Amino acid sequence: MALSNQRFTALDVFRGMTVCFMIIVNTPGNGATTFGPLHHAKWHGFTPTDLVFPSFLFAVGNAMSFVMPRLQALNQTQVLGKIFKRTFIIFLLGYLMYWFPFVHWEQQQLVFNPIGTTRIFGVLQRIALAYGIAALLIYYLNWKRALIVSVVGLFLYWVLLLLFGEPGAQLTLHGNAVLKLDTWLVGAEHLYMGEGVPFDPEGLLSTLPAVANVTAGFAIGYFLQKQGSTFEALAKLLLIGCLLLAVSYAWDLIFPVNKKLWTSSFVTLTVGLDCILLGILVYVIEMLHKTNWTYFFKVFGRNPLFIYLLSEVGAILMHFFRVGDISLYEATYRRLFMPLGNHIGSFLFAIAFMLCCWLVGYLLDKKKIYVRV
């Protein structure tokens, strides 16, 4: 059974909501005064912000469930070409984004950013790798076997962290196997420094469990296409979500939920929450036909990667250009938003920045321009 057009509305809204909130949490006016729920958990634990990125991966898988049947009609060379091309382009865009604008200010002069210290892994890179691996698994094994392989991967990742991390410190910032592999593979100078030490929360090893977010999204998308808009399908979707939450809370006792390590319990938790959120959207949009509010998020959902990249590049440029002794980003926050209050001002800055990105997406949508990779 094929889904109705409304199903695509639910998917666009779900994907658009993730992009919208990604921009909000990534561009606060002042990170030090951001509201607590808009921060990532410092290490073990979970906040609403930690749901955003895995939800995007889930949406990638969900969208793949609509595209894969068309790919099956092509020959193997064409399919592999499309998968590898998309993986490479998204990975390259992520890499170039961290290198951009290729120069920085140093004692009032522009100095070239050396390639030797450019971050290798990151958000877009994880999207690229998780998509590429999941697409290959689904293409060659079918979605059921791909999902089984992904679940096995969750247990394998748990074992790898325990075996190759520092004894007694396998799940710590300094002793985890993700850090050890990344340091050996690309060197500490190519890792993210946001924790104060070289450590990349989007490291290569922790991409293994992230693949399950994509394959789970594919499985749910396929399930909804086959089941259609019925209360039975909705009940099953919500039940799956609740069962995964129960698994997560039990697993957390021995393998803590941790976004920066992307632990297996984190995967089951986020997939469970995504099933529940998507179920709510399907109920409201598909079954109650309440769609008047959806266009705002559909704008984000129709050009998700482009708008996300635009938001990151826009923030980078605002940090790069100077107004006196401070960046344009900081000057805008101080003069327009900080007088409203530290926390409120920081939040409103993020909202305003997000709305600027939305406006670009709105203009593209009106012109029927959809950037595809």
Automatic annotation (TrEMBL):
It comes from the Bacteria. Keywords: Membrane, Transmembrane, Transmembrane helix. The keyword Hydrolase does not apply. The chain crosses the membrane at residues 12-31, 51-71, 83-100, 120-140, 147-165, 203-224, 233-251, 263-285, 305-324, 344-364. This is DUF5009 domain-containing protein. It comes from Adhaeribacter rhizoryzae.
